[in-house]
Every structure is written in structure tokens, then in C-alpha cells.
User: Which sequence fits this backbone?
């Protein structure tokens, strides 16, 4: 199995965002090759649910982070080389015995575009393989320090193949004779096509890991300490939202003794931002990627469900409340079938009346609290529910985001505090915006 995630959660956390908009993926995607970007997006969609995979990927990225490794290739060459290797139509094969005067003249005058494209790609592959040779030689002394990358040994074996002996010999060559071009084209594009694709895939992975190491350094990210899934622990120090400018950082710790966080605070106090930050950090940690926090330690989870920006489904005739109920039903089934889940629910039952929301919030939170294997974060405006839950459950951690008043104007600290808020500034905000004055004008 893989880490359980769904579209609602991906959208809530803005993992990919809408076209042209900034997203978590856009923050992390600084790859130098098109193939690297495609592979990174694929990685982004499938977090791990096991310790070994997370730790292995972390170790690779951290190696390049500590060594400040630079991507050793000229990235502009990869698109043409990839296209060249995909085009295995034998009709495009170079014929060294083609002695047609027109063809020879075109090649001499460099007007044979098909030949020039193939020639450029052969030279490009020679450059790529020689650069890989150089890269492996540079890290030879670090082999004990560098964790094994996927297919690394296989790629080293490929570039040492006897059929590729010509590569070192042609390192400085800019123009190949027709005979050499035909010979090398046959080896690279036909005999060793599968091997050349493996080399490109390896370089795309290298591109990803090196670029992620750069992002970690530039964005002040850290490498989370991953632990096996048999504990219910998650601690994040100085957690921040990676898409915000000058974000306020918060520290939070969840243990088996307080695996339910009950979050209160006024509108605009930062509840949704904190929940999104928490979810993003969990998501990235399960990818094995650097996380937006000073420190993080977590036990591997089975998956995560969030409900932060739940849309109405008017096409199916669903009210917002019924959409919430269906979402809750899906989550309930999910945590019954998988252990060690993380559930984030912003404003339980905002789509119904206060009395029903009050009763339902208590009932659902109490039921969540009975599940000691999973982690829950629930926010609400109905702060009266907290007093009842405090009496009934001993594993709920009450946190709030305070609001201060300066000359009658609410100011938000965005900093978590233990306890339950008593802030009620809705009418004050309405008065400050002179809504009633506008409505009472004749």
C-alpha cells in the first residue's frame, strides 16, 4: 500500500494549485531538466507509508545538501537527446554507404537538417556519458557516505560497457565523419537504447535530489527525523507555511496522551493557515523531502485526510452540510480500515444551525478521541463545546490562536497558546467597518 491521500486533501493543502498559481510543488520544483520536472511531479503525487523508503530518499537529498553539490550537466541538451532516443524509426538511421551526391553535398554544407539533428544528439550523448564518468570519479571517495541511489550501480556498469569505448575517445570531438556518426548512431539509438533511457532517468533523479537540496538551503527547510509507525508521535518545532512571506512559526507536539488537538480562535486568527502548514509538513515528510520547520520528528502514518476548503456539490443537489456529512462518512470509513491516520477538520459542521453544530461537534470529537492510534486536529468557533469535551476526554490537547485589542482594533498574533479562547470579536469587526451605519442610512 501507499500513503492514503485524496483529491480533497491535495486541494486543501494547495499541493499543486491551479494553473499559473503558486503552489507547494512550485516552491520545490527547481529542476534543471524537463524530465526531472515530470519525474518530480510524479514523486509528489505518491508519498511513502514505510520507514525504509522515506529514510533512503532523505539520506540521498541530505548528502547533496551537506556537500553543496551542483548539477554537473548543461541542461539545454536533454530535450533533443530524449527526442532522439524516442525516435527509433529505422528509416531515420544514418547510412554510411549513402553516396548520393546531393546528400553528401548537403552534409558538407550542413543543410541536411535531419542529419544535423541526429549528429547533435550523438555529440550530446557523448557529452552526457563523459560527464557522468567525471561525476562518478568525483564521488568515488564518498561511496561510503553517499547512500545508494536508484539504479546507480547499473548506470555505472552501462557507461563502462565495451560498446561505449568510443565515448572517451570522442570527448572533445565536435564534428563526426559520416562513417563514425552512422556507427555511433547504431550503438546509442538502437543497440543500447534501453540503457540510454536508464541513464537519462538516473540523471533526472540526480537533478531532483540536487535541486531539492538547493531548495532546502534557500528556504531554510530541515530534514525530518523519521521513526517507525509503531509509535504515535509527531513533533514539529518552528513550523511555518512555505507559501507565505515572513510567516509566523509555531511549535506543536502530538503524543498518544494528547492525540486530538482541539483548536479555537477568532476569525482571521490563523486557524486554517496553521492546519494547512501542519498538513503540508506531514505530506512532505512522507515524501522524504525537506520540511518547512526548524525541526520535525514523526512516526510514519498510513495516510491523511483534510477538510479545510470543502466545496458545495450543487450539481448533485448537496447542501454544504450534507457535503460535510459525506466527507465525515468517508473519513470514518478510512480510519476504520487503516491505522495511524491523520485527520484535519476545519470548522466542523459550519453548514448547519448552531444547536446541531454544537451537539454534532461534541459527538464526533468524542468519537475521534476514542481512536488512540490516529492524530486529529479539529477547529471550531463553537467554543462552548470545549468545556464538555474537557470533562469527557483526557486525550484532547486544547490550543488557541489569541487576538489582542489595540484601540478597539483586533490584532492577531498567529502564535499557538495552550487553552481555549474566549475571543468574540465578530461584532467589533462589523462595527469597525461601519456596516450598521451603512445599512441605517436613509
Assistant:
Amino acid at each position: 500500500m501507499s500513503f492514503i491521500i485524496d483529491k480533497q486533501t491535495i486541494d486543501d493543502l494547495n499541493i499543486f494549485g491551479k494553473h499559473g498559481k503558486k503552489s507547494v510543488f512550485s516552491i520545490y520544483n527547481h529542476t534543471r531538466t524537463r524530465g526531472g520536472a515530470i519525474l518530480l511531479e510524479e514523486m509528489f503525487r505518491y508519498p511513502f507509508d514505510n520507514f525504509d523508503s522515506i529514510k533512503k530518499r532523505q539520506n540521498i537529498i541530505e548528502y547533496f545538501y551537506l556537500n553543496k553539490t551542483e548539477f554537473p550537466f548543461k541542461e539545454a541538451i536533454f530535450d533533443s537527446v530524449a527526442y532522439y532516443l524516442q525516435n527509433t524509426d529505422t528509416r531515420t538511421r544514418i547510412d554510411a554507404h549513402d553516396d548520393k551526391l546531393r546528400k553528401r553535398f548537403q552534409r558538407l554544407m550542413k543543410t541536411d537538417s535531419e542529419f544535423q539533428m541526429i549528429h547533435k544528439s550523438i555529440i550530446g550523448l557523448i557529452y552526457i556519458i563523459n560527464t557522468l564518468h567525471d561525476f562518478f570519479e568525483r564521488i568515488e571517495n564518498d561511496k561510503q557516505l553517499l547512500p545508494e541511489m536508484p539504479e546507480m550501480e547499473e548506470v555505472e556498469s552501462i557507461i563502462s560497457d565495451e560498446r561505449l569505448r568510443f565515448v572517451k575517445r570522442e570527448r572533445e570531438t565536435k564534428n563526426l565523419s559520416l562513417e563514425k556518426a552512422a556507427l555511433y548512431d547504431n550503438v546509442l539509438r538502437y543497440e543500447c537504447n534501453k540503457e540510454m533511457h536508464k541513464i537519462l532517468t538516473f540523471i533526472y533523479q540526480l537533478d531532483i535530489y540536487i535541486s531539492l537540496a538547493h531548495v532546502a538551503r534557500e528556504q531554510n527547510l530541515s530534514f525530518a527525523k523519521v521513526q517507525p509507525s509503531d509509535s504515535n508521535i509527531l513533533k514539529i518545532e518552528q513550523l511555518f507555511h512555505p507559501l507565505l512571506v515572513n510567516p509566523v512559526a509555531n511549535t506543536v507536539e502530538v503524543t498518544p496522551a494528547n492525540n486530538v488537538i482541539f483548536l479555537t480562535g477568532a476569525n482571521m486568527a490563523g486557524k486554517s493557515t496553521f492546519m494547512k502548514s501542519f498538513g503540508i509538513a506531514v505530506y512532505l515528510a512522507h515524501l522524504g523531502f525537506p520540511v518547512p520547520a526548524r525541526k520535525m520528528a514523526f512516526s510514519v502514518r498510513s495516510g491523511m485526510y483534510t477538510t479545510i476548503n470543502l466545496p458545495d456539490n450543487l450539481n448533485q443537489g448537496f447542501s454544504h452540510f450534507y457535503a460535510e456529512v459525506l466527507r465525515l462518512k468517508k473519513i470514518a470509513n478510512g480510519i476504520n480500515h487503516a491505522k495511524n491516520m491523520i485527520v484535519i477538520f476545519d470548522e466542523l459542521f459550519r453548514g448547519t444551525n448552531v444547536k446541531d453544530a454544537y451537539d454534532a461537534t461534541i459527538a464526533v470529537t468524542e468519537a475521534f478521541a476514542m481512536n488512540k492510534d490516529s492524530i486529529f486536529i479539529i477547529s471550531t468557533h463553537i467554543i462552548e463545546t470545549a468545556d464538555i469535551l474537557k470533562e469527557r476526554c483526557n486525550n484532547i490537547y486544547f490550543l488557541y490562536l489569541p487576538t489582542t485589542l489595540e484601540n478597539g482594533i483586533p490584532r492577531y498574533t498567529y502564535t499557538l497558546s495552550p487553552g481555549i479562547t474566549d475571543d468574540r470579536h465578530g461584532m467589533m469587526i462589523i462595527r469597525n467597518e461601519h456596516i450598521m451605519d451603512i445599512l441605517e442610512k436613509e
